[in-house]
Design a protein that fits this description.
The chain is mainly beta and about 110 residues long. The protein has no helices and 11 strands. Strands 2, 4, 5, 6, 9, 10 and 11 form a 7-stranded mixed beta sheet that branches. β5 and β6 (about 55-60) form a beta hairpin. It is globular, with a radius of gyration of 13 Å.
C-alpha cells in the first residue's frame, strides 16, 4: 500500500503563488506517473497536471504557463508550483500515483 500526503494548500490572494507537495511512502513511486487533480465545489474532479516516470509533463489548458509540476524520485515527492493564481483555481487539490493511489486532498482558496 502506498500512502500519499499533500501539503502546501491555503488561502492566497489573486495573482499570488503557492507550492503544493505530495510525499509518497514507498520506493515504487519512481515507477509511476504522478499527477495533481482538483475538484471545485459542485464540479467533477479534473486533471491539473501529470508527470511520467521519465519526466514528461502534461497540463490542463487552464493552467498552462502558470503551473509547473515536478518530481523528486529520491524523496518520493511530487510538487506543483502554482503562480498567477485566479479565483477559479479554488478547489481541493489531490495528488495521485498512477491513478491507483490517492491523497486526501489539500484546500486551495484564491480570494479576489
Amino acid at each position: 500500500q502506498v500512502q500519499l500526503v499533500e501539503s502546501g494548500g491555503g488561502l492566497v490572494q489573486s495573482g499570488g503563488s503557492l507550492r503544493l507537495s505530495c510525499a509518497a511512502s514507498r520506493v515504487i513511486y519512481r515507477f509511476y506517473t504522478a499527477g495533481w487533480y482538483r475538484q471545485a465545489p459542485g464540479k467533477q474532479r479534473e486533471l491539473v497536471a501529470d508527470i511520467s516516470s521519465g519526466g514528461s509533463t502534461n497540463y490542463a489548458d487552464s493552467v498552462k504557463g502558470r503551473f509547473t509540476i515536478s518530481r523528486d524520485n529520491i524523496k518520493y515527492t511530487t510538487y506543483l508550483q502554482m503562480n498567477s493564481l485566479k479565483p477559479e483555481d479554488t478547489a481541493v487539490y489531490y495528488c495521485a500515483l498512477g491513478n491507483q493511489y490517492w491523497g486526501k486532498g489539500t484546500l486551495v482558496t484564491v480570494s479576489s
